[in-house]
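Before a colleague's protein record goes any further, I have to sign it off. What it holds is a sequence and that sequence's fold in token form. Would you go through it and say whether the fold makes sense for this chain? The record follows directly below this note.
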Amino acid sequence: MSVILCTAGYDHTIRFWEALSGICSRTIQHPDSQVNRLCITPDKRYLAAAGHNNVKLYDIKSTNPNPVMTFEGHTNNITGVAFHCEGKWMVTSSEDGTVKVWDTRTGSLQRNYAHKAPVNDVVIHPNQGELISGDRAGIVRVWDLGESVCTHQLIPEDDVAVHSVSVASDGSLLCAGNKKGNVYIWRMIQEAEVTRIVPICTFQAHKDYLTRVLLSPDVKHLATCSADHTAKVWNLDLDFPPAKTAIAAAARSKVKSPSAAEVKPASPSSAGSESQSNSMQLERGKADSIPFHLLNGTQPANNVEPPPSFPVQPDGPPMDPNTGTLFLETTLANHQRWVWDCAFSADSAYLVTVSSDHYARLWELASGQIIRQYSGHHRGAVCVALNDYSEPR
């Protein structure tokens, strides 16, 4: 049981798999509803299955088909679930517009945070003191558990639903993916007892509905899943050889043939705007509740697309000069329908994906090849959980 791999979805079953052989070793019935999300406790003892309006906790090492605990209190689909590092509490998000924190020992509700819109995802910061959630109104919120307040409100795009959020294992980065297929990345900086959040880059990962963003355990890769039948893996590593080569080539090309705009002397007005831009940059850490297009000091006119204002920072991940995106490492393209969810292996070398085509697939990222295909669901598989860590996280 060193590797726990399970999937679930719309056929009302939860399936446990032998990761290497592809054999389904156990099936649990979930008759109440479809299963929206799965999460394994860090000690690999329990599996949480989030359904329509409750979360059921199953004993992984037992053959008991019934849940050992059920968490009741949400009034609509539960969209996200995550555990405290020692399993003492669990957080859930729901389309009922709330984020709830539960005591896993008693099943009691400990915190209840209200969004003004359905909440699509929630994750726990590695410091175990903050939660990050994203909602259908397009807002990412950071919650301080100690003070029980919302400390940051980020609005990547006005009224564009945030479907998924992910935080780096070292707490350095926060990612959000939205309905348009766009990904936003912020740097999270811990200063004394305050977390400062600075936008560092954005790009379009998919031209269709984005379902999941997930940072790898080593924080060198970002996986995205989409309605376009693909999952993609993007590079975040400054030492990624193709990135270094492409950026160096672009720099040489720029030196050889500067554009007229680049050699034209700066006018007083442009110098002033640069000064204003730098001033605004200094204030970014204090302006987390302001829509990003307002951080440039401009209010867009009605029906006018706001100017690009989510800057690429020099300390951010390498950006492909040819595409304006992160460097694409591999596209996982053998799915026949929507790709809903994914999970990295502990060493960040493998990714498991699940799709509406009923299959789960294990991919080797270095080659982009399918290593195993897990067949057994007879309706769409929409969630996956994997824990192959050698010790509790």
Q: What stands out?
A: The domain at 76-245+310-374 is CATH 2.130.10.10 (Methylamine Dehydrogenase; Chain H). The first strand starts at residue 4 and ends at 9. Helices lie at 241-256, 260-263, 268-283.
